[in-house]
Amino acid sequence: MAKNSALPRESIAEQIAARLPTLEPQRDPAARALGERLLLDIAGLCVAARHADYVRAAIAAVEQPGPCTVIGEAAGLTLGAEGAAFVNGTAAHGEDFDDTYEGGPVHAGAVIVPALLAAAERHRLDGAYLLRGIAIGCELMCRLCRVAPMRVHKAGFHPTAVFGAFGATAGIGAALRLTPAQQVDAFGIAGSLASGIIEYLAEGSWTKRLHAGWAAQSGYRAVRLAMAGFKGPRTVFEGEHGVFRGFANTDDGNFAAMLDGFGSEWSWLTIAFKPYACGTMAHPYIDCARALRARGITAEAIERIECDTAEGIVHRLWEPLAAKQQPPNGYAAKFSIPYAIAVGLLRDDAGLAEYDDALVHDGRLTALARKIHYRIDPDNPYPQRFTGHLRVLLKDGREIVERQDYFRGGAEHPLGDAAIDKKFFANCAFGGMSAAAAEALARAARGVFSQASVKLA
């Protein structure tokens, strides 16, 4: 069949695939350091969620024996590569406490680490190839956010789910040393496996939790199909019926922004780690609320709180306002800025315990959340930067303003190793793991990139 003359001589997928064999990010000490932090953070999150009902449901739904670690399973449960990638990705992302890339936002580590760990254990890769795959997979996932900023979310899809399938495909393909032609086919196949709508926002249902796991397993399946000779469209990214037309409702994506510097400038090195167990854009607002508490401001003294916010987050974290002021359950509360502000002021934290289903219905929290409103700031820098702003009107007539122009944990204000270690051990304790077992898991996570044949557990 003759090729359509309108098709490009070299597609976007072909350009990416041509570069992958030349990349060796595993040689960079900064990549090693970040890879260890990501693996430690993901491991702790998997342990924290291991007894959760949604994780038990995910495990029960997988009937696939194999050699791959299910992180934190006391009985030493192992699964096939797709099953382990799915379960670990679901557990890692399930509490919305996982890493984030501020230019997206996307949760790269929660997709790429489970995907690459499963592939590495299944194919007996060494630690260097595991790190290579993690770096390349995270990098592509982050860079895809540049093509059509905010449009995937606005179209009703979850960028972590959509871009994650391609990031996992790139990372696993690089680790397994696919040929450029195989890699192009794998990208094309991944386009038909990518998915993830954001209707979970309506009532706090569980489907967002599986998005990272589904993307992780989809990347592995796309790669294995391509290795077996299955063909995929080479114009999967820019084509008339390609990813950005389908998931972002656009045909004018800025692919140059994605490709410029790919392989020489590493965006994934700015991946951020969360201090709070909720949507990233709520974090600066929580810090502002905690600053109010530190100043002695009580909920009872507040008449009204007005917040400047970015237009791009309103449909996910502010509206419908009445529902966000009184979320139906703990998971829905993770995507509510009014609840985040209230819990930050009243409990001085927003960790896993603050998103318990019973706590969400506490009368004091609900009463304060109902006082919180927003207005759109047209100059807000989202998604390049996440900010928080509270203008508090007190019953005695005073007005207090708290503002934070950064995300604590982000590239400009990163969490140090001590904070990440503390989070890991706290998450392990939350999941009921003994201190000795947590120490052993931490040692394994830190040593995996030195292994001749990767095995976490």
Explain what this protein looks like in three dimensions:
- The structure is a single chain.
- With 457 residues, the protein is of the alpha+beta class.
- The protein has two domains: 12-274 and 428-450, 2-methylcitrate dehydratase PrpD (Orthogonal Bundle), CATH 1.10.4100.10; 280-404, 2-methylcitrate dehydratase PrpD (60s Ribosomal Protein L30, Chain: A, 2-Layer Sandwich), CATH 3.30.1330.
- It is 48% helix and 7% strand.
- The strands form two sheets. It has a four-stranded mixed β-sheet, covered by helices on one side. It has a two-stranded antiparallel ribbon with strand order 1-2.
- A hairpin with an 8-residue loop joins strand 1 and strand 2 (78-79).
Brief overview:
The chain contains 21 helices and 6 strands.
What's the helix count?
A: 21
**Unreliable residue runs:** none
How many separate domains make up the residues?
2
State the assembly state of the protein chains.
Answer: single chain
What is the CATH class name of the largest domain? Mainly Alpha
Distance between the termini: 50 Å
Approximate strand percentage: 5-15%
Which secondary-structure class do the elements indicate? alpha+beta
Order of helices and strands: HHHEEHHHHHHHHHHEHHHHHHEEEHH
Q: Which fold name corresponds to the CATH topology of the largest domain? A: 2-methylcitrate dehydratase PrpD
What's the structural blueprint in terms of helices and strands?
Layout lengths: L11 H8 L9 H20 L4 H8 L7 E2 L8 E2 L1 H13 L14 H16 L3 H18 L6 H4 L4 H17 L4 H11 L16 H21 L15 H6 L6 H5 L23 H12 L7 E8 L4 H4 L3 H5 L4 H4 L3 H11 L9 H4 L2 H7 L2 E5 L11 E7 L4 E6 L12 H14 L4 H13 L10
Parallel strand pairs: 3-4
Antiparallel strand pairs: 1-2, 3-5, 5-6
Helix pairs in contact: 1-9, 2-4, 2-20, 2-21, 3-4, 4-5, 4-10, 5-6, 5-8, 5-10, 6-8, 8-9, 8-10, 9-10, 13-17, 17-19, 20-21
